[in-house]
Amino acid sequence: MIKMFFVRPGHFARSGGLWYEPGILMIVEPSERVEVFVDRYGAADMCTGAYDFAQLDEQAPPAGLLWAIPFMPNRGHHLLADAAA
Q1: Disulfide check for 44: which of 2, 8, 22, 37 has CB 3.0–4.6 Å away?
Q2: C-beta atoms surrounding 39 within 10 Å
């Protein structure tokens, strides 16, 4: 199973060795960890939190992240079904 988030404006996130900017869809797999950073003048500055997969709650995401499914009503259910298969 995967978890999906968008990065909020004013933040950056790092997961699976990749950096994510605001508005980018981040797909997190069970083996990955997410670190959220504050955006300072266009660059990642202070880390505001680091989360293991189990700590990430899609319906109550950590500061700096948004749960992706409510913003993808036409595609979200297909992505979840594919991930469950």
Answers
A1: 37
A2: 18
